[in-house]
């Protein structure tokens, strides 16, 4: 049975949905315009561990903060939650923009981080503009299943009128500048057909991490863990249990 809790820190609030028990603890961090509900199937597939899916501030059921948070401030909030409520290092799984948050948690707060998984990481420096990112996202969504499109549209509506400012916060963050400062094992995971996170960019991310590796899910796009979470879950579990 899931337990939902709120956590406030430094003027911002996240909502966390916790289910299961066991090690490792997986913390799921969603992408731009999304919320914790997109991780429903992935959380189910990771049974046997505690799984915590988050609504970041201004997404899902989490209230809008007074100001849109930077990626770094969002990472600080997630880390504060982990220190206060989880109290054990976690495997932080970030999708899309959430991968940027997971990356910064590992850099800024290594004590709360056991490993990180970056699914379809953004933002590729060759497309660091709103029009290019939106064009890639629209092209990727166009080949997705109706289930993915419907769930994504619902979450984008819930993200509210400040989505444009949130998009800017995502775009100004430069993940390539901090990769070398991650000192925990890291898995970069992408769908084989992901148009938002191209293979060359994901390879650059994996190579830039001191202990990074790249894996692909055949026949999947950017929303691989929504469309069919089982292959991603198997790769995440294998990585989490590896030496």
Q: In terms of structural class, how would the helical and strand content be classed?
A: alpha/beta
Q: Give the strand order of the largest sheet, numbering strands 1, 2, ... along the chain.
A: 1-2-4-3-5-6-7-8
**What count of helical segments does DSSP give?**
9
Gross geometry: globular
* SSE succession: EEEHEHEHEHHHEHEHH
- Pick out the low-confidence regions: none
How many E-type strands?
A: 8
Mean pLDDT: 89
Strand content: 15-25%
Distance N to C terminus: 31 Å
The biggest beta sheet reads:
8 strands, mixed
Radius of gyration from CA coordinates? 16 Å
Helix content: 25-40%
Helix-strand blueprint:
Layout (H helix, E strand, L loop, with lengths): L2 E7 L2 E8 L5 E5 L10 H6 L4 E6 L15 H16 L3 E6 L1 H12 L4 E7 L10 H13 L3 H13 L4 H10 L13 E6 L7 H10 L3 E6 L6 H4 L1 H12 L3
Parallel strand pairs: 3-4, 3-5, 5-6, 6-7, 7-8
Antiparallel strand pairs: 1-2, 2-4
Compact overview of the structure:
Helices cover 40% and strands 21% of the residues. It has 243 residues and is an alpha/beta fold.
What would the keywords be for this entry?
alpha/beta
Describe the structure.
- The protein is α/β, with parallel strands linked by helices.
- 40% of the residues lie in helices and 21% in strands.
- It has helices spanning 40-45, 71-86, 97-108, 130-142, 146-158, 163-172, 199-208, 224-227, 229-240, and strands at residues 3-9, 12-19, 25-29, 50-55, 90-95, 113-119, 186-191, 212-217.
- It has an eight-stranded mixed sheet with strand order 1-2-4-3-5-6-7-8, with helices on both faces.
- Helix 1 links the parallel strand 3 (25-29) and strand 4 (50-55).
- Helix 2 crosses helix 3 (97-108).
- It is globular, with a radius of gyration of 16 Å.
């Amino acid at each position: 049975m899931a337990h939902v809790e709120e956590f406030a820190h430094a003027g911002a609030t996240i909502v966390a949905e916790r289910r299961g028990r066991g090690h490792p603890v997986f913390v799921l961090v969603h992408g731009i315009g999304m919320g914790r509900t997109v991780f429903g199937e992935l959380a189910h597939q990771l049974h046997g561990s505690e799984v915590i899916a988050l609504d970041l501030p201004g997404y899902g059921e989490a209230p809008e903060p007074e100001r849109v948070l930077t990626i770094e401030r969002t990472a600080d909030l997630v880390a504060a939650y982990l220190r206060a409520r989880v109290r054990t290092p976690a495997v932080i799984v970030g999708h899309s923009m959430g991968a940027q948050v997971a990356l910064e948690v590992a850099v800024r707060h290594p004590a709360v981080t056991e490993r990180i998984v970056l699914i379809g990481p953004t933002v590729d420096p060759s497309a660091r503009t709103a029009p290019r990112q939106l064009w890639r996202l629209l092209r990727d969504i166009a080949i997705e299943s109706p289930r993915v499109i419907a769930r994504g549209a619902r979450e984008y509506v819930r993200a509210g009128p400040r989505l444009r400012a949130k998009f800017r916060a995502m775009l100004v963050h430069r993940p390539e500048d901090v990769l070398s400062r991650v000192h925990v094992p890291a898995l970069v995971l992408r769908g084989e057909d992901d148009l938002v996170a191209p293979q060359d960019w994901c390879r650059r991310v994996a190579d830039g991490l001191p202990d990074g590796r790249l894996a692909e899910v055949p026949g999947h796009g950017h929303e691989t863990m929504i469309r069919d979470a089982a292959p991603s879950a198997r790769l995440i579990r294998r990585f989490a249990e590896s030496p």
